[in-house]
Amino acid sequence: MTSEPSAPDRLRSLEEPRYLSASFLRADIRAGLVVFLVAVPLCLGVALASGAPLMAGLISGIVGGVVVSVLSGSQLSVSGPAAGLTVIVAAGIAELGFEVFLAAVILAGILQVLLGVFRAGTLSHYFPNAVVEGMMAAIGIIIIFKQLPHAVGYDADHEGDLSFLQPDKENTFSELLQAFAHIEWAAILISVVGFAIVWWYASDKLPKPSWLPSSLLIVLVGVAGVLLLPGLGAQFVLEPAHLVQVPNLAKTPASEWVHLPDFSRVADPRFITLAVTLAIVASLESLLSVSAVDKIDPLKRRSDTNRELSAQGAGNILSGLLGGLPVTAVIVRSATNVTAGAITKTSGFAHGVLLLVFVVALPSLLNLIPLASLAVILIAVGYKLASPSLFVRMFKRGWDQLVIFGVTLLVILFTDLLIGIGAGLAVGVLFILRRSVLSLHLSVRSVPGSETEPVVIRLSDQVSFLQKETFLAELDRLPSGRPVIIDASHTQFLDPDIREVIADFKEQAVHRGIELELRGFGHIDQSLVSVNRLVGLSYSRLLSNNRLWAEDKRREDADFFKDSAKEQLPAYYFLTCSDSRILVNMFTGTDVGEVFIHRNVANQAPLHDPSLNSGLLYAVDVLKVKHLIVCGHYGCGGVEAAMKDDLPKPLNDWLSGLKEVYREYRSELELLAVDQRSRRLVELNVLRQVRNLVDSDIVRAAWARLQPLEIHGWVYNIHDGLVIDMKVHVTGPTNAR
Ligand code: CO
Q1: Which residues have a catalytic role annotated?
Q2: How many A from CA of 549 to the centre of ligand 1?
């Protein structure tokens, strides 16, 4: 809501160790102030709904701010009493009494510290994105619906309630109908002005005071309304029920807010059950909140969730000792924190200190704040959480993600947080099961085309003995005389039973006149691969393989060919040998459009070869490649030929440059063993061709116009697939040679 430095600017300063710089401090204190304002009624509302003393909610808020934010593993999450715990807390207090309940909170805290120590926070990595996003959208929508009644001055439901069925016997939607029958005109006026302020601050065109956050202005206007509107007439008086109502500590007898934990029931199973339930639910809520906050953190930081659990545990131990409600990280206050422009945990700490100071010393000031103003702030936060762009994003992510998101959202909206999360997770697991069941099916496809084209059997990711029956039946159905490809390139696991079937089929195929190719078995079973060399390879398999390849590419990325057809932007030019074992894209891990390749026998770069020069000209002048790489290879037939006399004329002409190198180094080469000789000549050849490129007019002209261009020399070792860098890196005419 305020104009703060942009996220990248902040990130840059975060990299420097000036965490507490003045600009951060200012932004954090402003955000802390806003969070504090919305936290006051939320703490009171949760206490009210839990059937606990009001002060217990405030104590929990203060502990969450002052203690948990300091220890927390998250920079932006805010902790305090949670709406999601009210049912458990209310039942616990009713059953065991408040003092025994406090002891259970302490035990729950100890358990949470242990959960953190044993790294249970790692669980949060298993919340699917779609579930966390569904939760955020649901909470956003819930805040908007639940706060609308407060915005018009109908305050029957307590603040901070997130569940569908409300304690006032209404639900989220029927409450809205009630609200519009009980309108307070002063509240409406305050809200309308508040929304106008939100709109003003959100607009790019209007100037606004950057030192005054919109939320603070909304509250100030609200307080002014409470003080001034009654001048317009009796119908504009806002009763205390429509304002924040912090109990005045000075006027409250100590016996009402000093409560000490009672450990007399530690052996009672109901006590233990309560403590364990609190520990589990509070931990879940905290982890979910922290996951949600990490998603909306403009700096995209990732919180340490194990540290967060221990911090929450410490908070609960202290809150229980002081007579407070259990704390968790809470989404609404955390989202308010992010929206208000917080940068570090200083903001959460500031909110705690402000709570402490105002509750102890200045409660009457807080009690001038109308709930309608806070409703406006929270509705703006709700809109951020459930923004239309989130829905657009989910629609684009495919229907299974959308279903998980939608189920989580709707179930939370109509029940409560944890049930919704459970439903979202369950749907997610169902999708995973469905996918793995589907992939159990053997995918067999006969590639359409002429009768002579191969039938392709593609094995799926996991092929177990469960598929043996289907597989055998499939093999029996194959027509005689037609080529067959069994493709395992996508298979991670192949059951020994199936391997045996394939090995048997290998024999059978010969008798049935089936030309069999086993494709992509290299990573599974080398003994199956050897069969490829024994059968004559058909030409038509190239075309069917091509269709499979194109289909795979499209399946990985529907727009693959659309995108790559637009243009090529290679950064590398390769000059390499025509040898069939040099798979440049494979051994360099490059893809379509990344490497411009020129090939000829023994990777020659004769300066007057029109074929070489036109390729080089296009690569350097038009494509503006950054690197020219000459890549020879050991075992090069061309290089070996150059050491012989009586070559056929075309080859003799083509290799004349290489023969020159050979003559030049002959005496040195003949000192080497025979097998070392050709290896050394391969290397010398690469160096000579690099020099040819350095001397090329095309390259010289590029350097003359200061175009960045480097020339390198490589030898590819066909024996181990590794590249040997010859350590020549020519970057300009000055360091040539
Ligand atoms: Co070669």
Answers
A1: 577, 579, 581, 633, 636
A2: 27
pLDDT tens, residue by residue, 293-318? 998 998 888 899 999 999 999 999 99
State the average pLDDT over residues 627-631: 97
Contacts of residue 708, Cβ cutoff 8 Å, sequence gap at least 6: 626, 731
Q: Sorting pLDDT into bands at 50, 70 and 90, what band is 16?
A: very low
Six-digit token string for 299? 């700096």
Q: For residue 689, how far is its CA from the centre of ligand 1 (angstroms)?
A: 14
User: Mean pLDDT score of the chain, rounded to an integer?
Assistant: 87
Q: What are 448's two structure tokens?
A: 């359409």
In the chain, the amino acid numbered 380 is A
Rounded Cα gap, residues 388 and 618, in angstroms: 47
* Distance of CA 577 from the midpoint of ligand 1 (Å): 5
User: Are 28 and 343 in contact, with CB atoms under 8 Å apart?
Assistant: yes
Q: What is the pTM of this model?
A: 0.70
- Tokens representing residue 334 in the block: 């955390």
| Dihedral sign of CA atoms 507, 512, 515, 519 in order | negative
Check: CB of residue 344 under 8 Å from CB of residue 122: no
**Separation of 631 CA from ligand 1 center, angstroms?**
10
Tokens of 713: 């020399």
Per-residue CA distances from 98 to 158, 159, 258, 290, 614 (Å): 20, 22, 11, 29, 87
- Read off the DSSP letter of residue 297: -
The amino acid sitting at 629 is I
